[in-house]
Amino acid sequence: MTGEPRETELLVVGSGIAGCAAALAGARAGASVTLATKATRPEESTSYWAQGGIAVSRGDAEQFKRDIIAASDGLADETAVDVLVESADEAVEDVLVETLGVDFDGDDGHEYAREAAHSEPRILHVDAATGKHLLGPFMSHLESHDDVEILADTAALELVTAEGRVHGAMLEQNGEWAPCLAGATVLATGGVGACYGRTTNPPTAAGDGVAMAALAGADTADMEYVQFHPTAFAGEDGDDRGTFLLSEAVRGEGALLRNADGERFMPDYHEDAELAPRDVVARAVRAERERTGGVSLDVGPVDFEAEFPGLASACRDRGVDIEAGIPVAPAEHFLCGGVAVDTEGRTSLDQLYAVGECARTGVHGANRLASTSLLEGLVWGLRAGEAAAGNEPVAVEVPELRDSDPSLPDSFAEEKFIRLRRVMDDYVGIERTPSDLDRAAGVLRRLKGEIDAYIRTRTSRSLYELRNACIAALLITRAARENETSRGCHHLVEEAAADAD
Ligand SMILES: Cc1cc2nc3c(=O)[nH]c(=O)nc-3n(C[C@H](O)[C@H](O)[C@H](O)COP(=O)(O)OP(=O)(O)OC[C@H]3O[C@@H](n4cnc5c(N)ncnc54)[C@H](O)[C@@H]3O)c2cc1C
Question: What domains appear along the chain, each with residue ranges and CATH number?
Answer without folding.
Answer: 6-224+336-388 (3.50.50.60), 229-332 (3.90.700.10), 411-500 (1.20.58.100)
